[in-house]
Amino acid sequence: MKRRKNYWFAMPLAIIFASGCVSVRSADPIEATVVDSQTGEPIAGVVVVAHWQLRTGGFPETQEGGQLEVQESVSDPDGKIRFPGFSSRVVAEQLDRDADPELILFKPGYLPDMVGTGPYETPRRKNFKGAQLTLTKIDSNEPRFKDAFSATRMRVRYMSTHPSTPCEWKRIPRMIATLRQQQKLERQQGIVSSGLYDELIANEEGQHEFGCGSVKEFFSKEHIE
Q: Which pLDDT score is estimated for 192?
């Protein structure tokens, strides 16, 4: 006797796809160059985070959610940064048109920068591919640096610890270490503020509850203390 095949389990997913509630996303590899804005010379040692920001809620009142993907790169002696991209993924949320991806760049001695994208397309073919990104040398005592550094710290904190994707901080250890390096310099100047590293260490128990594992053990393996 011929067995009847059951297709009922596939119906909900088919209905969701048909209703436009989910989409398939991917990202091509990115290779760009970071240079000094004044000299045009490549800058080595710039930590760059690429993150693909999700948004939740219905149009027009959407809000930032967690992350579809987070990747980290450090510029080589030629100023090159490279991100591998990612293969097709099914996502229920929208992607932020301005952070698809967004690049966060930081190196002590330079003005931090956050560079968005613009209108997106599928598959992801971003204008970052082959792009030249510039950073400007600046004294860390200048108000402009302090404002940009504060904004960068807040952005990194939010995108790496959002409740829907709370363990993304584990993907950006070099950014956390470099921000901490700058924070130590501030403390030497009498400026006391908490950074992401300090907050994660203080919330060790909470990170365990999120399933992120031990914060201290992770940073110990990454030689960050």
A: 66
CATH architecture of 10-221: Sandwich (2.60)
The model's confidence at residue 19, banded by pLDDT at 50, 70 and 90, is: very low
φ/ψ (deg, to 5) at 162:
-60, 140
Q: Where are the beta strands (DSSP E) in 101-188?
A: 102-106, 113-115, 132-135
CA 28/CA 127 separation, integer angstroms:
11
**HSE value, Cβ hemisphere, 13 Å, CA-based, for 171:** 20
Beta bridge partners of 212: none
Sequence-ordered list of residues with C-beta below 8 angstroms from that of 65, at least 6 positions apart, any chain: 53, 54, 55, 56, 93, 162, 164
Q: How far apart are CA 174 and CA 48, in angstroms?
A: 9
pTM: predicted TM-score of the whole model, two decimal places: 0.83
Could you tell me which of 160, 196, 192 has the C-alpha nearest to residue 180? 196
SS3 state of residue 100: coil
Give tens-digit pLDDT for 61-115.
667 788 989 999 999 999 999 999 898 777 777 777 667 789 999 999 999 999 8
Q: At what angle do helices 173-188 and 143-161 cross, to 10 degrees?
A: 140
Instruction: Enter the tokens of residue 151.
Output: 């904004």
Residue 105 phi, psi dihedral angles, 5° rounding: -115, 135
Q: How far apart are CA 168 and CA 195, in angstroms?
A: 16
Token pair recorded at residue 165: 């994707």
Q: What percent of the chain has pLDDT over 90?
A: 50
